[in-house]
Amino acid sequence: ITAIGGRPHAERVAIDQAGERARGATGYVTLEPCAHHGATPPCATALIEAGVSRVVTAWIDPDSRVDGKGHAMLEAAGIAVETGVRSSDAARDLQAYLTRKQLSRPSVTLKLAVSADGYLGRRGEEVAITGALSRAMVHRLRAEHDAILVGSGTVLADDPDLTVRLPGLEKRSPHRFVMLGRGGAPKRLKMLQNAAQVPVTVITDQPELPAVFTKAGVTRMVAERTGHQGLSGQGDGFALPELMEDMAASGISSLMVEGGARIAQSFLDTGLVDRIELFTAVTTLVSGRGGAPILSPISRSALRLPPPSNTKQAAFQHHRTTTLNGDRLDTFYAINAKPKEF
């Protein structure tokens, strides 16, 4: 497995662990061994020097610095190369990387938590919809992503911290992105307290950030606004495709969108969601108390999730259901967002 931070690559980790046993062995890799000099010499060179006799690869690396060159180096050294083995299985694990390389944007996961009667919460109130185990799963999902994004509405309503607070995973907190609405920056922000440890970037079209933000170490990403207004006509209105390209250019391969309703709808409307993690609680929030409905009764139409017996018109395919102490977590993958075939 590739080390945290991307170095060393998995091939070098495996070779170091195998020692002399690597000589004459078969190396199994999900992604073509790199062929270029970066922070370390090419992994293809490491495999050649280790004396392996055969390499089995699931995916050719779409990075222009590799793209078949790693395999060519191995074959030139007399090593047998077999490609495309179980590429469909490997694509799920490589989705973030392949999406960034092939589509020039991060792979996007949309996380939604709704009550049993289909509400995200009550306007003006911070309500814990799901149980403790579901909330722990959200922290795990955060740890799996490079970055997390919320809209200004969520920041103003909940003032979230957006870090990972599971024991042992605190250092896996993602880079936090906050869309700054036209109303300007809030005077206080919980994220400012630890921005020096866990990066915070404000997405804005304003020329500068408030001094309290820059003093805390918050950075700015400039984005253009569009006429798109999102679910309720009050969306933050940023040009999301261009914003995603900017994130990918900064090295972000996976993005988790965690709120709120307008931002969720905007990402869905622009076809940028690759995966949905939908938490459904046993709790009801009772309509008529100012809830913010998004999923029920429009879950099958707005999100275009597959009905139980028909997936022909769906934009997303159900992958699995996980039960979390009464809460339910359904995972969906976009049908039209698969990586290009091998």
Helices and strands, with pairings:
Layout: H1 10-18, E1 26-31, H2 43-50, E2 54-59, H3 69-76, E3 80-83, H4 87-93, H5 95-103, E4 107-114, E5 119-122, H6 132-143, E6 147-150, H7 152-158, E7 175-179, E8 200-204, H8 211-216, E9 219-222, H9 240-249, E10 254-259, H10 261-269, E11 275-280, E12 291-293, H11 299-302, E13 316-324, E14 327-334
Parallel strand pairs: 1-2, 2-3, 4-10, 4-11, 6-7, 6-10, 7-8, 8-9
Antiparallel strand pairs: 5-12, 11-14, 13-14
Helix pairs in contact: 2-3
Write a structural description:
The chain is of the alpha/beta class and 342 residues long. Helix content is 26%, strand content 23%. The chain has 11 helices and 14 strands. It has a 9-stranded mixed β-sheet with strand order 9-8-7-6-10-4-11-14-13, sandwiched between helices. Strand 2 (54-59), helix 3 (69-76) and strand 3 form a beta-alpha-beta unit. Helix 2 (43-50) packs parallel to helix 3. The two termini are 22 Å apart. Mean pLDDT is 82; it is low at 228-235, 294-302 and 307-312.
What can be said about this structure in brief?
The chain has eleven helices and 14 strands. It has 342 residues and is of the alpha/beta class.
**What characterizes the major β-sheet?**
9 strands, mixed
Label the structural class.
alpha/beta
The number of strands is 14
- SSE order in H/E notation? HEHEHEHHEEHEHEEHEHEHEEHEE
Strand order of the largest sheet: 9-8-7-6-10-4-11-14-13
Using the alpha-carbon principal axes, give the shape.
globular
pLDDT averaged residue by residue: 82
Number of helices: 11
Strand content of the residues, in percent? Answer: 15-25%
Fraction of residues in helices? 25-40%
Radius of gyration: 22 Å
Q: Ranges with pLDDT <50 over ≥5 residues?
A: 228-235, 294-302, 307-312
Instruction: Give the CA-CA distance, first to last residue.
Output: 22 Å
